[in-house]
């Protein structure tokens, strides 16, 4: 098995979805969200604080060509790839996140400063993990790379009487309506000898930079309102309004010889310019050019993660999509150790947890598997945020304020904490965690849940009941049986969310879906859930309808505005699986496991892997949502799915003949017998048949149920799976565990 780092294509997902027409089961799934991955190809460090990318101002990352898009095919803002410079701190694969970054725009120019903001066409784009390069139509070759808290720019100029590298301290956000982010306060200082520093306060957060330029014999000046501040060394702004903002920044300028290169090193910190300078010195050293060193070190860091995930087999297209999915899974969240601007102590600080309602299911378990120390640091940071702000965050960006996406979900951090406890992650004070977990359950929607044993939107009833279950697990483990009993009692109120007459969730308001999309979540008591629905046969019948068995193909949303009969409401009325275009029901295929039909799981997962991904710029079916979708693809390709909060992984037919995961020094090996190579739909236009598990063993012992524990996965071992062309009796009798199994067993 080989490292697949060279198979990564960071351009996947940067353009509107462009996949072959889905065939078979996948053709019946309906896509409610924007048909674009919303990723960017910029330079990123694995789970690092900084990214850097060409900036056009387009939605939502700042790279690309599209306007705001939340439904259907995105509409163009531009007709070509172009950029006005290169910015730092981008979103990755998100949808409608209201605040955006793209700070400290760096622009190489051979025009006067008045031309700052011009959009130049991008040519000859190249991207790989940790590196992005392109040529502007001015002839300037532009390259960026990043470290964990640093960025390095390298520009190769054509011959020019006056070359310039301009740093705009005042820029942020997107070039769309209501998309700009304006500094609240700012100061900057030119230190001479190629050095400068400054701090901008964006969305209540101080972001500092220390800059060191290798620009021999070039002048170094401040500028304000596109005019040079000759002789000035400092600019200070005590307050800035949108109506009073005038751009300001730093410029390096001088004659350029053909092929002359200029490098700009930038260190960042959320704790002041001294720490920004120290970060730059620690990572790259001061006083020397460092582009190639930074690029090489970041490449090695990416390789260290990719060394942990290896596969054998698979077509080139499948390997490219898999490798890129792993890459996208490790861009966010951003870890800024010792960088919290909100509390003074050292330790982990994690932000850009932008879609917790998605990433808690797939991405956090993947990060915890590949980097257990990072997983523990994420949990510690979440606990600290709760202590400082009073709530566990549902979303947490580099922005201060109460806008934490509480409407999307409740008690989601509790699932990750329960998994961390059951896995025995080091470095966490679990008594401290339990206090905050219990208190958080009583806040926001939790107050109504306490009083009424049910809350609307009804999905929060499921969230809170699950949060009570996860908290009870830790309470019992710590020996507080009284608390555990109280919590477990409330965890049973998930049943209040359902209509016994239909087996579905009650009518309510729903976030990005309908009650069918949320009715098949993997709960902590799936045995009781299936019984409530009328038993195995009735539950499978409902799932079959949801996944489109026997249904006609559907027509997806086109480009807004939609024609009559093509709208969002009509699509929701189908009560259909959202097909990886959106994530609320992405665990639903594995609900079949609990009803003894793992063959159905195999068919649906195979249809998704075959039809909904391709190694192209339009190769994602929807927003990557900070890596949640990509993490789904990684797990599904390995034949596994994490049931977050339950220390449980469900087993399915893998997409590769052999795969291995290195977890905390232990190797977990997945081997197959009878595996058949299966191209993805974009390669052939045909639909290869799925394969089904015939039997399985774990460490040589029969695996009669379709699951292993998270502890077994993390401990390493050998999972051997025999595959065949027809469904078998495997895992039809032994079901994944449910709470009521322990209660009534």
TrEMBL record:
Domain Glycosyl hydrolase family 92 N-terminal residue range list: 8-173
Gene3D superfamilies: 2.70.98.10, alpha-1,2-mannosidase, alpha-1,2-mannosidases domains, GH92 mannosidase domain
GO MF term list: carbohydrate binding; peptide-N4-(N-acetyl-beta-glucosaminyl)asparagine amidase activity
Renumbered residue ranges of the record's region Disordered: 724-745
Segments passing through the bilayer: none
Ranges for domain Glycosyl hydrolase family: 275-725
Protein biosynthesis as UniProt keyword: no
InterPro entries named among the record's database cross-references: 6-hairpin_glycosidase_sf, GH-type_carb-bd, GH92_N, Glyco_hydro_92, PNGase
Superkingdom as given in the UniProt entry: Bacteria
Lipid metabolism among keywords: no
Gene Ontology biological-process entries: carbohydrate metabolic process; glycoprotein catabolic process
Keywords from the named record: Hydrolase
One annotated Gene Ontology cellular component of this protein: cytosol
Matching PANTHER family: PEPTIDE N-GLYCANASE PNGASE -RELATED, PUTATIVE-RELATED
Name this polypeptide is given: Glycoside hydrolase
Organism: Jiangella ureilytica
């Amino acid at each position: 098995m080989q490292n697949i780092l060279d198979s990564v294509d960071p351009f996947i997902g940067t353009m509107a979805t462009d996949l072959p027409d889905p065939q078979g089961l996948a053709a019946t799934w309906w896509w409610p969200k924007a048909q674009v991955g919303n990723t960017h190809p910029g330079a990123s460090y694995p789970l690092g604080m900084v990214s850097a990318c060409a900036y056009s101002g387009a939605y939502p990352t700042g790279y690309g060509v599209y306007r705001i898009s939340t439904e259907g095919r995105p509409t163009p803002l531009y007709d070509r790839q172009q950029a006005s410079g290169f910015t730092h701190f981008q979103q990755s694969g998100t949808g409608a996140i209201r605040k955006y970054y793209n700070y400290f725009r760096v622009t190489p120019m051979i025009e006067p400063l008045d031309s700052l903001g011009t959009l130049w066409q991008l040519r000859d784009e190249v991207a790989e993990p940790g590196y992005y390069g392109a040529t502007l139509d001015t002839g300037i070759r532009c390259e960026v790379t990043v470290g964990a808290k640093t960025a390095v720019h390298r520009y190769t100029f054509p011959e020019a009487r006056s070359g310039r590298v301009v740093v705009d301290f005042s820029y942020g956000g997107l070039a769309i309506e209501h998309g700009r982010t304006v500094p609240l306060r700012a100061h900057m200082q030119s230190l001479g000898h190629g050095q400068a520093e400054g701090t901008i306060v964006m969305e209540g957060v101080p972001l500092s930079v220390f800059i060191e330029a290798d620009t021999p014999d070039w002048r170094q000046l401040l500028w304000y309102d596109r005019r040079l501040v000759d002789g000035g060394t400092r600019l200070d702004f005590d307050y800035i309004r949108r109506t009073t903002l005038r751009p300001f920044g730093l410029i390096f300028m001088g004659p350029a010889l053909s092929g002359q290169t200029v490098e700009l090193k930038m260190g960042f910190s959320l704790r002041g310019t001294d720490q920004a300078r120290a970060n730059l010195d620690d990572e790259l050293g001061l006083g020397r050019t460092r582009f190639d060193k930074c690029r090489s070190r970041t490449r090695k860091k990416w390789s260290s993660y990719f060394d942990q995930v290896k596969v054998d087999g698979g077509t080139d297209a499948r390997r490219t999509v898999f490798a890129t999915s792993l890459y996208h899974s490790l861009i966010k969240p951003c870890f800024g150790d010792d960088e919290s601007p909100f509390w003074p102590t050292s330790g982990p600080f994690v932000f850009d947890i932008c879609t917790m309602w998605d990433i808690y299911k797939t991405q956090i378990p993947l990060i915890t598997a590949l980097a257990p120390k990072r997983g523990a640091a994420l949990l510690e940071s979440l606990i600290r945020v709760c202590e400082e702000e009073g709530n566990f965050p549902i979303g947490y960006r580099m922005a201060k304020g109460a806008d934490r996406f509480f409407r999307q979900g409740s008690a989601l951090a509790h699932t990750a904490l329960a998994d961390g406890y059951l896995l025995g992650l080091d470095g966490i004070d679990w008594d401290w965690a339990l206090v905050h977990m219990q208190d958080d359950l009583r806040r926001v929607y939790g107050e109504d849940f306490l009083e009424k044993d049910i809350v609307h939107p009804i999905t929060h009833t499921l969230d809170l009941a699950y949060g009570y279950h996860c908290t009870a697990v830790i309470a019992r483990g710590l020996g507080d049986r009284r608390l555990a009993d109280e919590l477990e009692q409330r965890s049973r109120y998930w049943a209040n969310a359902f209509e016994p007459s239909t087996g579905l969730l009650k009518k309510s308001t729903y976030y990005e879906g309908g009650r069918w999309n949320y009715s098949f979540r993997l709960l902590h008591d799936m045995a009781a859930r299936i019984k409530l629905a009328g038993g195995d046969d009735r539950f499978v019948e409902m799932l079959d309808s949801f996944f489109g068995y026997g249904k006609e193909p559907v027509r997806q949303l086109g480009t807004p505005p939609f024609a009559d009969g093509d709208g969002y409401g009509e699509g929701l009325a189908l009560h259909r699986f959202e097909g990886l275009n959106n994530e609320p029901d992405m665990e639903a295929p594995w609900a079949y496991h609990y009803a003894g039909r793992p063959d159905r799981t195999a068919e649906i997962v195979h249809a998704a892997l075959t039809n909904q991904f391709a190694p192209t710029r339009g190769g994602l079916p929807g927003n990557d949502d900070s890596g949640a979708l990509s993490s789904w693809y990684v797990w599904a390709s390995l034949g596994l799915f994490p049931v977050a909060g339950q220390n449980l992984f469900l087993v399915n037919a893998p997409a590769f003949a052999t795969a291995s995961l290195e977890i905390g020094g232990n190797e977990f090996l997945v081997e197959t017998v009878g595996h058949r190579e299966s191209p993805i739909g974009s390669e052939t236009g045909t639909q290869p048949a799925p394969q089904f598990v015939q039997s399985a063993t774990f460490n040589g012992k029969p695996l009669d149920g379709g699951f292993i524990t998270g502890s077994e996965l993390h401990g390493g071992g050998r999972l051997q799976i025999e595959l065949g062309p027809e469904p078998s009796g495997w895992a039809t009798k032994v079901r994944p565990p449910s709470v009521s199994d322990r209660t009534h067993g």
